[in-house]
Structures
1.
Amino acid sequence: MNSSVGFENGLWRLIPKNHFVSMSFFREEPLINWGYTESVLFTAYDVCRSSDFWIDSVIRSGKTLKEAMTDLGFPKKTSMMADTGVFEMEAKKAGIARSLGIDVDIALTNEEIFEAYRLSGADYFVSPDEIIQPTESSEEMNKKIEVIKHNFTDLLDEFPARKIVAVIQGTNRSTITMIFDFYRSHGIRHFAIGGLIPLWRHDKELFKKTLNYVRKITKGNWLHAFGLPILRLLPFYLHKVGVDSIDTSMLLYLSARRRYVVGFEIVPVRLVDFASCECVACSVLSPKLHPRRYDFFMNLYIQNIVEAAKYSENPELARKKKVIAKESQITGRRRQTDHRVESKTPRCHPRLGRLLKRRFRRTQDINMTNQVRVSTQTDANSEPM
Ligand SMILES: [Zn+2]
C-alpha cells in the first residue's frame, strides 16, 4: 500500500459501493454499523435516483448525508469517497434501454453532481470524467479531455485539492502523461484510472499496459482503479499492478443472485458448505434458511464483503481453499460484470431538483456538461502504449 499519501479518514484497499441513499437497508442494522471495510463509495447518481423520504429529512435538517448516517450508527471514521456514478449511467444507456430504442435521459450536470457532493459530506470527491473509448478518434478524445479538464477545475473551485481524486483517462502514453501533469500542477495527490472495463473488453494487452503505465507515472501518489470487470482481477489490480484501491458493487449484485465468494471464486450457494467458514455471517447461513429470505441475502452479502476485503489485504490466504464442490471451478469462471443493467429510467430526486433550481436562479450556474466548448486541441494520439 502506498504510505506516502495519507490523511485522516484515508482510503482503503477495497471500497464497496454503499447505496445508502437509494436502498434503505444500508441505513439499517446490520449494514449501518459498517465494520467490513474502512472506506465506502457513494455516488451522486444514487442521490438522484432515490425517491426515499429519508433524503428529504436530511436536506431539511441541514446535515450532510454522512452526518445523518453517523447519527444512525455509521462509523464516523469510515471514509466516504463520492463519485458521480457516470459509469453506471453509461452502462444503462448502452444496455437494455438502447436495445429497446429508448433514449434514456439520465445525464447529470456538473451542478447536480456538485450539489450531491456538497450534500454528501464525503471525505474525497471524484472529478467528473468522460470515458475515453480505445476506438475513439483523436478528435473525439481531445474533446473529452477538454471536458475532463473543465470538470476538474470546476471541482477545484468547490473542494480543496487534497480532497479530490482526479481521474486519468486515455489509452496512449502522451494522453495519460499530459492529463497526469495537468492534475499534478494543481497539487493533486489522489488519482484514479477510469475507462478500464471497456478497455478490458476491447484489448486485454492494452488494458494491462495502460494500467502498468498509469501506476508507473503516479508512483508516490494514491492510485484508485474504477471498475472491476471480474472478481479474479482483484489480486491483479492490487498486488500485481500495485493499485492502492478499487471500488466495486459486484459483491452486492452477486449476493442478490445467490452467489458465494470464496477466495477469488464465485460459487452458487447450493454448492457451498457454510460450516466450513468461520465468519459470523456463515454461522447464520445454512441450507435450512431459504435462500430467497432477506436474512439469507443480508448474511450472504456480509460474508462476500468480508471475504473479498480479507483477500484484498492478503491474496495468499485465497490459495487456501475452503470446502467447495467441484462444479465451482467452472461456475467461478463465469464472467461477472461490475454493474447491473436496469430497464427502469431513474429520475433525479424531486427535492434535490427543487433545491438545484433555487440555486440555479441564485447563482446562474451553467450546465457545464452540455455547454463546455472545446477551445484547444491536444495531441492525444501521438504515442501508443
Ligand atoms: Zn463466511
2.
Amino acid sequence: MELKTTNNQKEYARSYQIRNREQIIAKRRKYNDSHREESKERSRKYRILNKETIKEKKKLYRAKNHYKTNAQKIAYCAIRDGNLVRQPCIECGDLKVEAHHPDYSKPLEVIWLCRSHHRILHNEEKRRQYEPRYRAGNKRQHALCGG
Ligand SMILES: [Zn+2]
Ligand SMILES: [Zn+2]
C-alpha cells in the first residue's frame, strides 16, 4: 500500500513536471538571471570594499617588476663597463646568451643561458609555482626527462 503511494507520488511529480515544463524552465532561467546579477553585484562590492587591497597588490606587482628592470639595467651597464662578462649557456654552451637573475635584488649575480634554455627555465619556474604537485616530485616530473 505504502509502495503504491510512493509510486503515485512519483508519478504525480513526473506528470507535474511534464505539464509545467515551460513554467519550470522559465523559473529556473529567471533564477539564473537574478543570480548572475547577484554575483556581478558581489564582485562590484568586493572591488569597492577591497579597493585598498587591490591597489596594494598592484603596487607590489609594479614594484617587483621595477626591481626586475632595474636588475637588468644594472647588469647591462656592468657588461658594457666590463664588470660583468658574458659566459656561454650553462646548459648547451651557446654563445648567444641572456642574463638570468635568480634574485633580482642581486643584479650582478646572473646565470648565463641561451634564449631557449632561459625560456625553459622560466617555464619550469612558473609551473613549479602554480602546480604544487611538482614540488612533491611525482610521475609527471618523469614526463619531462622522458625517464
Ligand atoms: Zn642553452
Ligand atoms: Zn631569467
3.
Amino acid sequence: MRTTDRSTEKTLLVGLELPNQDEPQVTESLEELGELVRSAGAAVASHAIQRLQTPTSPYYIGRGKAQDLSRKCQEDGIQSVIFDDELTPAQSRNLANVFSRKVLDRTQLILDIFAQRAKTREGKIQIELAQLLYLLPRLTRLWSHLSRQTGGIGTRGPGETQLEVDRRRVQQRIARLHRDLEAVRRSRSVQREGRHRCSWPTFCLVGYTNSGKSTLFNRLTQSEVLVEDKLFATLDPTIRLLPLSGKQRAFLTDTVGFIRKLPHDLIDSFRATLEEVKQADLLIHLVDVSDPKVEERIADVRRVLEELDVLRKPALLVWNKIDRLQGPAPLNRLLQRHPGSLGVSARDGSGIRELLSRVEGWSRGRALFFRFRLPVERGDLLARLHREGEPVDVRYRPDGVYVKAWIPPFLQAALTPFIVPERGSADSGDATGGAPPRENGGGRTERPQGFGAAGDSSGQR
Ligand SMILES: Nc1nc2c(ncn2[C@@H]2O[C@H](COP(=O)(O)OP(=O)(O)OP(=O)(O)O)[C@@H](O)[C@H]2O)c(=O)[nH]1
Ligand SMILES: [Mg+2]
C-alpha cells in the first residue's frame, strides 16, 4: 500500500552531462523524465544537471554534488530524488544514505508507472517479473556487501540469513512468474492461431508512447480503449476486427508504447505482449508530428523494433496529430523526407480515409489469383471463397465448379488440392496468368508500393 499522497510528492530530477552530450540533449531527457514523474502522479519541484567526464562509481554525480543537492532537498521540502539513468545497486544505496530520502532511477520510475497501470492478470505478472528482475541483483549485492563489511565471528546472524532467504524467495517467485507467463504465451498463441485460421492479416500499431495509437485504434475500430495524455496509458494489447472495403477484413492491434531507455527487464518480461508485434503482418508506425524531435522518436522506436527482431517487417509510417500543425508546409516536408508516409489526425479524422485505402491496398497487393475446380459436393469451399476471397468467374460443369478467384494468402493451403493449372502455365501454383487487372496490379506482390521495412533508414517507402 502506498502511504504517501502521490499527487503532492515533490521530486528533484537529476541528470548527468557527459562529454559526448550537449546540454539540450540532457535537458530534453530530463523533460521526458518530468513527464514520467507526472504520469506517475508526482510533481517536479526542481532539476539539476552535473557535468562530469564519467559517472563516479560510488555516487554517480560525485559525493560533493550529492551533499549539495541533499541540502537543497531539505530547504525545498523535496521528498524524493530521481536520477535520469539506471543506477548501480551501490550507487542507489550510497545516494539513499546521503539524501536520507527516497532515491529512484529512471528504470524504477517506469516500472512504478507500469505497476500502477497494470490491470489484467497478464500485465500484472509481467510487471511483477520486471520489478523482481530489477530487485534481484540489488539484493544479491547488498548481501555480499554486508558479508564483506561485517564478516567474521558473530556476524552470521539473522540479518544475513534473512537476506539469503529473501533472495531465494525472490528467485522462486521469478521462476513461478516465468511459468505463469509461459502459460499466458501459450494461450495467446492458441488465440493467434485461431485468428490465422480465420484469418485476415494483422496490422499492429506501434510508436512512441503518447503518439495517439489508442485514439487511432478507437477511431478505426469504433472501440473505447483508454486514451490519456499520459505516458504508457496502454499496457495490455487489444485486438479488434477492422472492416475494410468489400469483403476484406484485418485484425488491428493496439499495444504498449515505446520510450527511450526502455528498461531491459521490462522488454524481457513484456515479450508475451510484444509477441503481438512480432506476429503482425504489417506495422503501422505512428509518430506524433507535434513532437519537436520526430526523427529521434522514429529512431527510438526502431531501436526497440530491432530488439524485438522485427525491423524487416513491412511498415507504414503515419504522421499523427496533423491538426496541431500550422499550415501544410511542415507535413509536406515530412512527406518529402519519408516518401510513402502519410498524415492523419486520429482526433478529427482527417487522412483516415487515405490510411484505410493504403492498408487495403496492402492487403489486396498480397492477394493471389488462382483457378480452382471444386467438387460439386464441396459447397462449403465455394461459400468460403465467396466469404473470404473474391471470385471473378464461377462456372458449373458436370465435373465440378470452376472458379477463378483472388484469395488472401492464408486460404491457399486449404485450397491447394483444388487448384487447376492455367493452360500454358508450367506449374500448378501461382496462376497469375489470365488474372484480371486489380486496383494495384494484383498478382503475388510481396511488398506493395508505399511500404517499406520498419527499419528502412531512408524512411519507409
Ligand atoms: N491534437 C491531437 N491530439 C491527439 C491526436 N491523437 C491523439 N491525441 C491525444 O494524444 C494523447 C495520447 O493519446 P493516446 O491515444 O492515449 O496515445 P497512445 O499512443 O495510445 O499512448 P500510450 O498508450 O500511452 O503509449 C491523448 O491526450 C489524445 O487525446 C490527434 O490526432 N490530434
Ligand atoms: Mg495507448
